[in-house]
Amino acid sequence: MSVRNSSARQTGARTNPTNSRSSRRRTFFTLVVLFAVIGVFLVRLVDIQVVQADSLTADSVGNRSVGQVVYGSRGEIVDANGVVLAGTVMRYNITMSPVNATPFKRTVDGKKVVISVAEAAAEIGAATGQTGDAILLTIGAALEANAKANFAYIAQKVDVDVLRAVQELHIPWTYSENSPSRVYPNGAVAGNMLGYLSGEGVPQAGLESGQNTCLGSTNGSETYEKGADGVRIPGSSVTSTEAVDGGDVITTIDSDLNWFVQQTLAARAQETGAAWATAVVQDVKTGKLLAVADYPSVDPNNVGGTKNPEDRGSRAFTQSFEPGSTFKALTMASVLDAGAATLETGIVAPYRYLPANGANINDSHAHPDQHMTLTGVLIDSSNTGMSKFGEKLTDQQRYDYMTAFGVGTPTETGFPREDGGILHPVDEWDNQTSYATMFGQGLTTTALQVASIYQTIANDGVRMPVQLVEGCRQADGTMANVPDQVGTRVLSEKAAQDTSDVLEMVYQKSWVQSKWNIPGYRVAAKTGTAQMPDGQGGYSNGYLVSVSGYAPADDPQYVVSVSIADPVKLNTSAAPAPVFQEIMSQVLKKYRAVPSGATAPDLPSTW
Questions:
Q1: Exposure on the CB side of residue 282, measured as CA atoms within 13 A
Q2: I need a labelling partner for 594 at 20 to 30 A (CA). Which of 81, 207, 348, 533 fits?
Q3: What distance in Å separates the CA atoms of residue 419 and residue 319, rounded to the nearest whole number?
Q4: Are 524 and 510 a contacting pair, CB within 8 Å?
Q5: How high is the pLDDT of residue 230?
């Protein structure tokens, strides 16, 4: 036992120390190399994760991220009752990645089937109303322009049914994007006034243009990541900038009434062969426009359907004309307010009047000298008689009254390119203009300005600003841009009431009385006939015939003004009179105006 143990001890004692040192050196060098490699990786990791992090991240994201617009919604235009006249609906653009347009697999009846690009194109075309060849042509054209083309439109502004049909095909290289589109639910109702947008969404006319500060939205943006195959990675959207929706424009218009007025106006314009026509309904107490109609009308959903560009706007705002005899009410009111005459003041009205300044005035029909009161002059619509009353004021006095009534400047509506009419300064009047302006010639007005003149007389001499828009309703429900509706006194209450009494006499005794009679209501109104310009500084053979008035005359509530241009089949006041009657009757019925109780005045017309 002892011998074996001793032998073992001797063997262990003889272990080679050189081998042990060599093993330790190998281990040491291995660790050194290992740490060196780890150090290299650490340095590289720091370089990637810290030093180059921003640029590498940008490069990485740039290679697989896609940015797209997030559209804000344009605000609505609504009528006084909240009916939407112009709104925004979501439409969709179908897009694709041409560079990724390759065959793909689809499961059909439990089996994987390869769908070729041509087959996919045919399916897309069937959904979008195109041919497969057209889709292939789009792909080819995009790749020809750029071999790495990653975007092309397949169809734009399609509805949700088309979108779903394409999505259900599950073609990996097709996508969609939102594309808000403008719609006008009531078609041509108030279309001339609403205006429209271009195909690119740029406001072109009307309220769409004039109220764009309120209506306009601000687009946002978002990014999403895509895989190597170009397919959007689910859940990868990151909104960079929020979209901001536009505000809503609240108008004073009653869309139902506007529809009726347009229909009535169009029927008469077509019956008489008119070139164009306008009709305005205004609230006497507030100055608010309840209806503004134009013929021809335009449907903003199909602007191209109205061939003549001049018919796409609203002539009620943008077309001025010589008003003719409807303007005589202003001259009469001015004379009465200045105290230059009373309703019983008499003059002798000849057929032709040659004032001392050299002007030459005549009436529309030959007649002997007539002994007329101021009342009689307006009933007979005598130019010579009104000239004799008008000359009781200086030119400057009459000019001041006209400007106070709003003649010569655009109304307060803010409508784009609204015509202010033509009213030259007094020092530019020649001898004829000095008298012609007394009976509605030598100056021009718009349909809105004429309506405003009658609103002022009806409202006891207080002119209210003409109002089309109540304001801009913000996203939080608050109202901005609310117009100031403070009235301005133009006439004394007595002068306005006297003028109103005479206009009632005109309504009762006019030769068109049977054509504009409204049973149960007292009405104040005046007709007008004026030659139309020929565009070369003279007059054409055409006439603009009109009627303006208000009711109930004993408590005025509503003004109606109708103008019909060049009605070739009936160029007299008999053309607009029935339109006035129908519109005013509808207005009184719609708003339940109380029928008149007292009888109309009976004033002497001769002396």
A1: 35
A2: 81
A3: 6
A4: no
A5: 57
DSSP secondary-structure letter at 326? G
Residue 445 φ/ψ, nearest 5 degrees: -135, 160
Contact 390, 375 (CB under 8 A): no
Interval 152-173 mean pLDDT: 95
Distance CA 529, CA 327 (A): 10
| Residue spans of alpha helices (H) in 47-116 | 53-64
Whether the CB-CB separation of 207 and 195 falls below 8 Å is answered with: yes
CA distances from 543 to 568, 569, 581 (A): 9, 11, 21
Report how far residue 337's alpha carbon sits from residue 296's, in angstroms, rounded to the nearest whole number. 39
Hey, what amino acid is at 238? V
| Bond preceding residue 552 cis, omega within 30 of 0 | yes
Residue-wise burial string across 508-522, b where 16 or more C-beta atoms lie within 10 A, e elsewhere: bebebeebbebeebb
DSSP one-letter code for 43: H
- The rounded distance, in Å, linking the Cα atoms of 606 and 19 is 148
Question: What is the C-alpha to C-alpha distance for residues 546 and 530, in angstroms, rounded to an integer?
Answer: 9
How do 248-251 and 77-78 pair as beta strands?
parallel
Question: In this model, does residue 119 exceed pLDDT 80?
Answer: yes
| CA separation, residue 260 to residues 189, 560, 574, 579 (Å) | 9, 13, 20, 11
The torsion region of residue 273 among left (phi > 0), alpha (psi -120 to 50) and beta comes to: left
With a CB cutoff of 8 Å and minimum separation 6, the contacts of 258 are 79, 189, 190, 290, 291, 292, 293
- Structure pTM? 0.83
- Mind listing the pLDDT tens digit for each residue in 489-548? 999 999 999 999 999 999 999 999 999 999 999 999 999 999 888 777 778 888 999 999
Provide the pLDDT for residue 132. 96
Q: In angstroms, what CA-CA distances link 591 with 504, 594, 595?
A: 22, 9, 12
| Residues above pLDDT 90, as percent of the chain | 77
Do you find a cis peptide bond into 309, omega within 30 degrees of 0? Answer: no
The structure tokens listed for 90 are 């979501």
CA 143 – CA 117 distance, rounded (Å):
14
E strands, 322-463, where? 346-349, 352-353, 361-362, 370-373, 462-463
Is residue 506 within 8 Å of residue 602, measured between CB atoms? no
Of residues 536 and 431, the one with the higher pLDDT is 431
SS3 state at 424? coil
Asked if residue 460 lies in contact with residue 494, where contact means CB atoms within 8 angstroms, the answer is no
**Alpha helices of 237-299 — where are they, by DSSP H?**
255-272
Domain chopping of the chain, boundaries: 69-247, 255-591
With a CB cutoff of 8 Å and minimum separation 6, the contacts of 41 are: none
User: Helix, strand or coil for residue 408?
Assistant: coil
**Distance between CA atoms of 320 and 456, rounded to whole angstroms?**
19
Q: Which two tokens stand for residue 292?
A: 């503004």
Q: Which CATH number fits domain 69-247: 3.40.50.12780, 3.40.50.720, 3.40.50.1460, 3.90.1310.10?
A: 3.90.1310.10
